Amino acid sequence: MRSLPYFCRGPVIRGFGRGSKDLGIPTANFPESVVDNLPADISTGIYYGWAQVENGDIHKMVMSIGWNPYYKNTKKSMETHVMHTFKEDFYDQILSVVMVGYIRPEKGFTALDELISAIHSDIEEAKKKLEMPEHLKLKEDNFFKTCRSTTSNQILNGHRL
Q1: Can you tell me the distance from the alpha carbon of 94 to that of 71, in angstroms, rounded to the nearest whole number?
Q2: Any domain includes 85
Q3: Most CB within 10 Å of its CB: which of 21, 24, 41, 45?
Q4: Residue 100 exposed, middle or buried by CB count within 10 Å (0-12, 13-18, 19+)
Q5: Is residue 15 part of a domain?
Q6: What is the reported pTM?
Q7: pLDDT-based confidence at 112, cuts 50/70/90?
């Protein structure tokens, strides 16, 4: 994928409420304006990279882009699992992410436990890949140095500030 690494940021919105409740794996969701501006060569599937809430610490992340076949979504979404335990929700705060690599395409699962197992496997793969020097350097990218407040027409779409 030519567009990787891909940098984007936007406010965290309320999603379907399934990450924490159904899966035990909380996710932060981007608004449609961010999803709709993904480059054409970023296909649906599972990605890994780095994430930052507001001007906080930078953490490893995995992200699902697509329609979540298990749940049969009708709208494409970007759901980010930040590999960190936060004390509270961060709705409406700015999430900055750099998508570094691709793990796998979306899959349909017949059982919830299969989906949960796959997500845990994706998380472990992301942890390992993000230790590679070429991926670690992106954690230090200037993109994360300053978080800027955004409005819907100022959301960064793959461009460095």
Answers
A1: 26
A2: yes
A3: 45
A4: buried
A5: yes
A6: 0.88
A7: confident
- Measure the CA–CA gap between 63 and 108, rounded to whole angstroms: 16
Query: How many domains in the chain?
Result: 1
CATH number at residue 29: 2.40.30.30
Model confidence over 118-131: pLDDT tens digits? 999 999 999 999 99
Distances (CA, A) of 159 to 87, 92, 97, 143, 156: 30, 21, 12, 9, 6
Residue that is written with structure tokens 């349909």 in the block? 108
Q: What is the DSSP string of 83-100?
A: SS--SS--TTSEEEEEEE
Which residues sit opposite 155 in a β-bridge?
A: none
Residue 35 in domain = yes
**Cα distance between residue 80 and residue 137, in whole Å:** 20
Nearest to 23 by CA among 118, 125, 126: 118
Catalytic residue numbers read: 79
**Within a domain: residue 159?**
no
Quote the domain boundaries for residue 26.
Answer: 6-144
DSSP 22: I
